[in-house]
DNA repair metallo-beta-lactamase domain-containing protein (Saponaria officinalis), 492 residues
Amino acid sequence: MLDSIEDKDDPFSDEQPSISLDENGFPKHSEFEDKHPNLVGENSSGSSKDGSFAAEFYRCGTDWSTLSSKEDGKCDSNKKMKQTNLFQMWGIKNRMDFDEENENVTRFGGNLGFHLNGSSSSFDNRVGGLNDSLDVVSSVVEKRKARPCPFYKKIPGTPFTVDAFRYGAIRGCSAYFLTHFHADHYGGLSKGWAHGRIYCTPITARLVRMCLYVNPSFICPLELDVEHQIDGVKVTFLEANHCPGAALIHLNLPDGQCFLHTGDFRACKPMQTYPLLVNKQVDILYLDTTYCNPKYRFPSKEEVISFVVRTTKACLKKQPRTLIIVGAYSIGKESVYIAISEALKVKIHANASRRRILQSFDWPHLSKNLCSDGKDTPLHVLPISSLRHETLKNYLKTYQNQFTSVLAFRPTGWTFSESIGNQLGLIKPNSKGNIQVYGVPYSEHSSFTELQDFVQFLKPKKIIATVNISNAASREKQQSYFRQWLNGRVLE
Ligand SMILES: [Zn+2]
């Protein structure tokens, strides 16, 4: 199946050793190297003197403050390090809690009773408990022994951290930034949060308050495209083209340094017109490298949406009593069902919990198109984890007076197949009886080519990958792509 990519490339599939961590959240090098000599990559041993950014970065990595100044003498070239399974370090035993597109709320949903058992009312009731369950999960995560915050979540030269809520109070941190409302980014936030101010966009702020019950006095919403002064740093949030409320964070430090943190993002041409990014030096780019591999050259969101709408119309022409189902995370993928809704001029049915979240976006065109009774529209949104044949068959039974078949779409970058590439017409549905499920490569993260385009546009001095960094080989591979994109220039 198309999803096999997910397992094939799983960077976390290996059993990870139990090792102690240093004060920055990385394994103590000597202990790790002793136990796992085969896992110590080039950039943490032999080639550490090759002067490449990767070598330098990971050599200096146990002290993040060295990233702000090469002259401060803190970079200890003897201090080799190696990073381990981040999920393990974060105390997440079951990696199925985390979706590979970093949109793990689905998996939380899957674990928290999203599964259907034939009755739409029981389904709605179960999902209605999502907010409570999320809160419980966050509390549990927070109550686990706080682990050290990895250096790459701390912004050098500032008292800021980004998406670092699961480490308890972080010494020296006065402002905790949250890039967007996906659980692998907000994990650790709960109503008991009292470690400091949380900066995020207004949509994310509403979700943090509504779903996690965080004390509003800690939540500081910042509008997009407006420069704010925070602890002497100029901070501007920019649209990240990821999920509603997701932001890139642009930081201008008093010493003139400029950093860009992408959070999760899908790079696109309009970003190359952002005034803060055009012909401006970026000293460090913190980059979402979810699909930083040349095999991920999936089509644009617009192309996928157009395919979904075409397929839906063709199906309805053949079988007018078809129920259209779009799988979605608790937030994300909205454009897919909004496009179908607009093309067919039908409303969108979602359960009460999802409607509440969608209404919080304050998008009038979406809010007015939501409907509470599934019988009133052929377009339904379900958790992406529930798009299984058996589940859909049971779901269809609850609407047997209205619909006779199901056409479902499962939108995620992980459904991308190299053999299909950009030829969406080659995608075949997974069909069983009167249920058809299409996996469509709709991603809210950048494809490899989009990452390349963005990096070549921005020309940052230094790039810190934030995803798939759990092993030296993967980190070095990413750095080699960065070097190629910047015409072989050795990154600082
Ligand atoms: Zn995300």
